[in-house]
Structures are given as structure tokens and as C-alpha cells.
Amino acid sequence: MKSTVNNPDHSLPYHLRGAFRGFETALARYLETIGVPLSYFHILRLQWDGNGSSQLALATKAFMTESVASQVVKKMVKDGLLRRVRDPNDKRVWLVHLTAKGKRLREKIVVDGIKISNEHAADLSREDALITIEVLKKIRLAFDKYNNDYKLGKT
């Protein structure tokens, strides 16, 4: 009998990574057809629902390091999708805003991104999707707590 301890078929992280990589690969292929790097997508999707986020807040929400987010934002500014302005209340902080060009990408990417997601999750009911989202939130919060505790020297 095969041990389940080291068997990837019984590993939640293994399947989470596989599902994520599958979706991300499909999304990257689509974005490539319209000339948008995948790294841009992660910033754009956060900016479409709000504006004026700090680079640190964007990095955190996009699950990027500050240095990676800073490089992506610089490239997006150069490509005319974002503009950066100093926070009037704290001159050390850069606030990031979408340009009109960045806003125009929303419809195409969101509509087609939803199609990609739906087409590749045909056997997943809406109820299953909502349950999965709740479970993933719990997992993420547990790891966020662990990582924060680790950073503070509590583990």
C-alpha cells in the first residue's frame, strides 16, 4: 500500500499550486495576445476597483514583494497604464493611479478573463466555487498569521 504522507495526490498545497499555475498559464497566454504581461494584470485588477493605492498596499494585495511591485509599477508608468504621484499627507509615499489607457484594458481583460476561468471550471458548480473561496480564505489567513508571527519572532 502506498503511503499517503509524501504522496502529492493527498497534499493540499500541491493541488492549490497546480490549480493556480493552470489558471495563471491560461491567463498569461491570453494576455500575451493583447500585449499585456501577467505581472501587469495583478496590479491592474487591484486598481480597477479603486484608485490612489500606495505601492506598498498594491504589493501586499498582489502578493508581491515591495521591490517587485516597484519595478512592475515603473514599467507600467513607462507604458502609460499608471501614473504615480506623491501622497500629499506623506511625501515618502507614492500613490498609484490608473491612466485612461489602463482603465480601457478593464473590459477586455475582465470579460475574457472570466471566460477563461469559466471555460476551465465547467465541472465546478457556483456553490462549490463559493465554498472553495471560503476555504482558500481560511488557508490564506492562517498562513498570513503564521508569516506575520514569524516576522515578529513568535514562532
Structural features, described:
- The chain has 155 residues and is mainly alpha-helical.
- It contains six helices and three strands; from the N terminus they run ααβααββαα.
- The chain has helices at residues 12-33, 38-47, 55-61, 66-78, 100-119, 126-151, and strands at 53-54, 82-87, 90-98.
- Strands 1-3-2 form a three-stranded antiparallel beta sheet.
- Helix 1 (12-33) crosses helix 5 (100-119).
Structural class: mainly alpha
- Largest sheet report: 3 strands, antiparallel
Low-confidence stretches: none
- In percent, how helical is the residue content? 55-70%
CATH architecture: Orthogonal Bundle
Share in β-strands: 5-15%
The general outline is: globular
Write down the Rg: 18 Å
CATH topology: Arc Repressor Mutant, subunit A
> What is the N-to-C order of secondary-structure elements (H for helix, E for strand)?
HHEHHEEHH
Number of domains: 1
Say how many strands there are. 3
Total helices: the number is 6
Task: State the separation between the terminal residues, measured CA to CA.
Answer: 36 Å
Q: So what's the CATH class?
A: Mainly Alpha
Quick one: CATH superfamily?
A: Winged helix-like DNA-binding domain superfamily/Winged helix DNA-binding domain
